[in-house]
C-alpha cells in the first residue's frame, strides 16, 4: 500500500477513534465523577455516611470493573439499541465504552479524594461549611492533581478499549489494524497504525502528566 | 464564654468502647486564655472538638457565647461555627489556594461579597504580618507562616472564641514563641477568648491565664494559674516546679507573687530555726513570678515558723 492509499484510511480511522474517545470520556466523567464522590461521601466517617448505599455502589462499581470489556460490549447491546437506536457504529461504541470506563474512573476518583486530609475537611467543617461547599471547594480542588492523573489513565484505557470497538462496527484505528493489517496482511499499514496509536497515547499521557504536575506544585 | 458540663465521649472502635472523655466540666471566662494540659491520649483533642461539635458528645452540653450548641440543628450549628475560630497542629490549609484564597474561604462560606472579601482578607493578613505573602501558596511558606495564615483564616468571621489544637506543636521553639505572642496580642487587642490544648508546659507558662490538667479523659484540676499553684497537692505545681521526691519532714514552700520578700531570713531571725535548702525553682507564669522551695527546717520554734509562713500567704506543705 502506498502512503497516498493509506493516509485517507488513517485519517478517517483516527477521526473515529477520537470521536469515540472524546464522547466516552465526557460521559465517563459525567457518571464516574459523581459515583466516585458518592463512594467517598457515603463511606463510614464520610460527610454523609450510609453503609447500605456505600455497599451497593461498591458492588456496582466492582461488577463493572470485573467484566472484560469485550464481554461487556456484547452484553450491553440491548441497552445500546435502547439509547442510540442502533448497535453498530462509532456512537454505538460510546455506550459500552462509558459503561466500562466509568466504574474504573470512579475508583480512581475515590482514591484521589481520599488523599485529601481529614484535617483539611474538618477545618472546613469547623468554619461552618456545608457538604456541598466541602465537596466543591475543598475535596475536588484539593484532589485535582490526582483527578487529572486518574483521568489521564482513563483516557489511555479508553483509547485501548476503543480499538476493540471495531468488533461492533465502531471503526477507528484498532479496527483498521485488524481489517487491513491482520486480515489482509498489510504489514506497513499495521505498523503505521500502531505508531499512530502509540503517539496518541504518548501525547495524552504527557499532557496529563504536565497538567497534574503543574497543579501539584502549588 | 465557654461552658462545658458533664461532657462524655465514648468511641466505639471495632466493638470495643473507648472512653475518651469521662465527664468533663469546664468554664472558660470571657477574654482569658485557657489552656488544657495533658499527655497524649488524655482526651484533649476530643474535648476541643466537642466544643465546636466536630465531634458529637455522647452526653453533656456545650455552650459558647451564651448559645447552647448541643441544642442546635445542623444549619444553626453551621452558622454558630462561623463565629468560633479554630487553628490546627498541621495547619490544615488548602494547598490548592493561595494565602489570600485560604483566608477568603471562610468568608465565602459566610456569603461575604467579593469586594468586601478582598478588603477583609487584606486586613487580616496585615494583622498577622503576612501582607506580602497574599499571592503565595502554602507550600512556599514556613511552618510559622502557615500557622499565621491559619490564624488569619480563623479570625475571618470576627469570632469571639478561638480554639487551638496544639497549634505550636509542629513548630521550632523560636517560631512557637512568635506564634504564642501573636495569640497573646490578639487576646489583648481583640478581647479574643482562647481555648488552647497542649502537651507542653511552656505553652501554658507562656500565655495561659487559666489551665485545666487532663488525664485519662478527666479534668484533674482547673482554675486560674496562681490559685491552682497555691492549692495543696496541685499537679500543675508539681509539673511546673520539678523537684526531687521529698523525704519525710521536708518542708515545701510555694509562693506566688511574693518572690521578693525575705521570708527565709525572717524565720531564721524570728524563730531561731536552721534552714537547709534542698532545692528550688522560680518561674514566671500568667504574668506573676511563682516558685517553690524545698527545705529542711530544724531547731528553734519550728512549728511557729511554719505557721508564720502560712500567715504570710505562702503554701506550706510538710511531707509526712
Ligand atoms: N475517632 C476515634 N475513634 C476511636 N478512638 C478515638 C478516636 N479519637 C480519639 N480516640 C481515643 O480517645 C482517646 C483520647 O484521644 P485524644 O482526644 O486525641 O487525646 P489527646 O488529644 O489528648 O492526645 C485516645 O485513647 C484515643 O485513642
Ligand atoms: Mg491531640
Automatic annotation (TrEMBL), chain A:
Name by which UniProt lists this protein: Metal ABC transporter permease
Keywords: Cell membrane, Membrane, Transmembrane, Transmembrane helix, Transport
Transmembrane spans: 20-41, 53-77, 83-106, 147-169, 189-212
Protein source organism: Planomonospora sphaerica
Family to which this protein belongs: Belongs to the binding-protein-dependent transport system permease family. CysTW subfamily.
Pfam family for this entry, one: BPD_transp_1
Segments forming domain ABC transmembrane type-1: 14-208
GO cellular component: plasma membrane
Membrane topology per record: Multi-pass membrane protein
Location within or outside the cell: Cell membrane
Main location: membrane
Keyword presence, Lipid metabolism: no
Coiled coil location: none
Any GO BP: D-methionine transmembrane transport
Keyword Membrane annotated: yes
From TrEMBL, chain B:
Molecular function GO labels: ATP binding; ATP hydrolysis activity
GO BP terms: amino acid transport
UniProt cross-references to SMART domains, sorted A to Z: AAA, NIL
Pfam family for this entry, one: ABC_tran
Keyword Mitochondrion included in the entry's annotation: no
This protein's UniProt keywords: Amino-acid transport, ATP-binding, Cell membrane, Membrane, Nucleotide-binding, Translocase, Transport
Record flagged with keyword Transferase: no
InterPro entries for the chain: AAA+_ATPase, ABC_transporter-like_ATP-bd, ABC_transporter-like_CS, ACT-like_dom_sf, MetN_ABC, MetN_ABC_transporter-like, NIL_domain, P-loop_NTPase
Recorded GO CC terms: plasma membrane
Family designation: Belongs to the ABC transporter superfamily.
Quaternary state and interactors: Homodimer. Forms a membrane-associated complex with FtsX.
PANTHER family for this protein: AMINO ACID IMPORT ATP-BINDING PROTEIN, METHIONINE IMPORT ATP-BINDING PROTEIN METN
Protein name per Swiss-Prot or TrEMBL: Methionine import ATP-binding protein MetN
Name of encoding gene: metN
Amino acid at each position: 500500500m502506498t502512503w497516498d492509499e493509506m493516509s485517507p484510511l488513517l485519517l478517517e480511522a483516527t477521526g473515529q477513534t477520537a470521536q469515540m474517545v472524546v464522547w466516552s470520556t465526557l460521559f465517563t466523567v459525567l457518571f464516574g465523577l459523581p459515583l466516585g464522590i458518592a463512594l467517598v461521601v457515603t463511606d463510614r466517617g464520610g460527610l454523609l455516611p450510609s453503609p447500605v448505599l456505600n455497599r451497593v455502589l461498591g458492588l456496582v462499581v466492582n461488577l463493572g470493573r470485573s467484566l472484560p470489556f469485550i464481554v461487556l460490549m456484547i452484553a450491553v447491546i440491548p441497552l445500546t439499541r435502547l439509547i442510540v437506536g442502533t448497535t453498530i457504529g462509532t456512537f454505538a461504541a460510546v455506550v459500552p465504552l462509558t459503561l466500562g470506563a466509568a466504574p474504573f474512573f470512579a475508583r480512581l476518583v475515590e482514591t484521589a479524594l481520599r488523599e485529601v486530609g481529614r484535617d483539611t475537611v474538618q477545618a472546613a467543617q469547623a468554619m461552618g461549611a456545608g457538604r456541598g461547599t466541602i465537596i466543591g471547594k475543598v475535596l475536588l480542588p484539593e484532589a485535582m492533581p490526582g483527578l487529572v492523573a486518574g483521568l489521564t489513565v482513563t483516557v489511555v484505557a479508553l483509547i485501548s478499549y476503543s480499538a476493540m470497538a471495531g468488533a461492533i462496527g465502531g471503526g477507528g484505528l484498532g479496527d483498521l489494524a485488524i481489517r487491513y493489517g491482520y486480515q489482509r496482511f498489510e504489514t506497513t499499514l499495521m505498523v503505521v497504525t500502531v505508531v499512530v496509536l502509540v503517539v496518541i497515547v504518548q501525547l495524552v499521557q504527557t499532557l496529563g502528566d504536565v497538567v497534574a504536575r503543574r497543579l501539584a506544585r502549588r | 464564654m465557654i461552658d462545658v458540663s458533664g461532657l462524655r465521649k465514648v468511641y466505639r472502635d471495632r466493638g470495643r468502647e473507648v472512653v475518651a472523655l469521662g465527664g468533663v466540666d469546664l468554664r472558660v471566662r470571657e477574654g482569658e486564655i485557657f489552656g488544657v494540659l495533658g499527655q497524649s491520649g488524655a482526651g484533649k483533642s476530643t474535648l476541643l472538638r466537642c466544643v465546636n461539635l466536630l465531634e458529637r458528645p455522647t452526653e453533656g452540653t456545650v455552650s459558647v457565647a451564651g448559645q447552647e450548641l448541643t441544642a442546635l440543628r445542623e444549619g444553626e450549628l453551621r452558622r454558630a461555627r462561623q463565629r468560633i475560630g479554630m487553628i490546627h497542629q498541621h495547619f490544615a490549609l488548602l494547598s490548592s489556594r493561595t494565602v489570600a484564597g485560604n483566608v477568603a474561604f471562610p468568608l465565602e462560606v459566610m456569603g461575604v461579597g467579593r469586594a468586601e472579601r478582598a478588603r477583609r482578607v487584606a486586613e487580616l493578613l496585615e494583622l498577622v504580618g503576612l501582607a506580602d505573602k497574599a499571592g503565595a501558596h502554602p507550600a512556599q511558606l514556613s511552618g510559622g507562616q502557615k500557622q499565621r495564615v491559619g490564624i488569619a483564616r480563623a479570625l475571618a468571621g470576627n469570632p469571639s472564641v478561638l480554639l487551638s489544637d496544639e497549634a505550636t506543636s509542629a513548630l521550632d521553639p523560636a517560631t512557637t514563641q512568635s506564634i504564642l505572642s501573636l495569640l497573646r496580642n490578639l487576646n489583648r487587642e481583640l478581647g479574643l477568648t482562647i481555648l488552647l490544648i497542649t502537651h507542653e508546659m511552656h505553652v501554658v507558662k507562656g500565655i495561659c491565664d487559666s489551665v485545666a490538667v487532663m488525664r485519662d479523659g478527666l479534668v484533674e484540676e482547673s482554675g486560674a494559674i496562681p490559685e491552682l499553684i497555691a492549692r495543696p497537692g496541685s499537679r500543675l505545681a508539681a509539673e511546673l516546679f520539678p523537684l526531687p521526691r521529698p523525704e519525710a519532714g521536708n518542708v515545701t514552700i510555694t509562693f506566688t507573687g511574693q518572690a521578693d520578700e525575705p521570708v527565709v531570713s525572717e524565720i531564721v531571725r524570728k524563730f531561731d530555726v536552721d534552714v537547709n535548702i534542698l532545692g528550688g525553682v522560680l518561674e514566671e507564669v500568667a504574668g506573676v513570678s511563682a516558685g517553690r522551695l524545698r527545705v529542711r527546717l530544724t531547731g528553734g520554734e519550728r512549728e511557729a515558723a511554719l505557721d508564720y509562713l502560712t500567715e504570710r500567704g505562702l503554701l506550706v506543705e510538710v511531707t509526712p
